Amino acid sequence: MRRPTQQQIIDELHVKPVINPAEELRFRLDFLKGYLQFSRMKGFVLGISGGQDSSLAGRLCQLAVEELREETGSDYRFIALRLPYGVQKDEEDAQRALRFIRPDKSYVVNIKPAVDGAVQSFEEATGLKMSDFNKGNQKAQERMTVHYRFANAFNVLVVGTDHAAEALPGFFTKYGDGGVDLTPLSGLSKQQGRELLKHLGAPEDIYLKPPTADLLDEVPGRLDEDELGISYEVMDAFLTGKSVPEPVDERIIHRYQSTEHKRRLPVTPFDTWWQ
Ligand SMILES: Nc1ncnc2c1ncn2[C@@H]1O[C@H](COP(=O)(O)OP(=O)(O)OC[C@H]2O[C@@H]([n+]3cccc(C(=O)O)c3)[C@H](O)[C@@H]2O)[C@@H](O)[C@H]1O
Ligand SMILES: Nc1ncnc2c1ncn2[C@@H]1O[C@H](COP(=O)(O)OP(=O)(O)OP(=O)(O)O)[C@@H](O)[C@H]1O
Ligand SMILES: [Mg+2]
Questions:
Q1: In the chain, where are the structural domains located?
Q2: 3-state SS assignment for residue 223
Q3: Residues with CB under 6 A from ligand 2
Q4: 209, pLDDT greater than 90
């Protein structure tokens, strides 16, 4: 498998060194509106965690359907989902995000019974204890399942929050938060996402909240940067073409290469990218 250069990765992930927030917001809103009309669906659904990415993607979805309603007179809508595993420790942050997004409709689905049932079935079948890490991925995949039940029921598209700083290390669950229909934040660094939230008038607490996947029972709210061992600041520097000290640049490139399968469709006998 080829070893990509920093510039090739930047190009593959479509990252700009600098963004103009107003232009960038317009580009992404037009994408959401254009693709929604092409799909002939009625709107979007997205889980709102209280973190930066779903706050930004959720607000963009709401603004896109409001513009489309105004322009077409049709009943487009955005559905926000709260998907806690039991009681979420930072529920107040999620409520703050919902107040910022002001979604047309929101529902709460507790994923705990489904996740616990799946873990129990696995453990009964295998006689093994499922690790907390593996269970974390089950949580992300259960959220994907709930998204698609809402998508089917309400004729809407599932929105993902993947952006360049998560795509770079492949920091998402395959067919969990990676299992979506469209990703309006693609190509943005973490800092550029913050700039867009700021431009949209989000409260500072939303865009300064430290990023967490929050998937572990044993370490609630574990910071992404602690798990990754690389800071978003460094990944953003890499993505915007700045020089990153050795051996961190090598680690980033290695992680990008080893997660290539997560950014692609399932490998077929006709694919050659891995050779
Ligand atoms: N070379 C290869 N070619 C094709 N498929 C390959 C493969 N290597 C593994 N696989 C498959 O991929 C699976 C592993 O992928 P996956 O199940 O995703 O598992 P994995 O990448 O090990 O874990 C997901 C990571 O994403 C993080 N995450 C998840 C969700 C949200 C967020 C967040 O920031 O919010 C972060 C999470 O903390 C964890 O570090 C393997 O079990 C195997 O089935
Ligand atoms: N408790 C939750 N309730 C609803 N949706 C969730 C929850 N946890 C995760 N998600 C969904 O999974 C996505 C991936 O999580 P991720 O942590 O990357 O994003 P975030 O929480 O929005 O932002 P940040 O990365 O800054 O924490 C979220 O954007 C959201 O759509
Ligand atoms: Mg999060």
A1: 18-223
A2: strand
A3: 46-49, 51-54, 81-84, 88, 143, 161, 177, 211-214
A4: yes
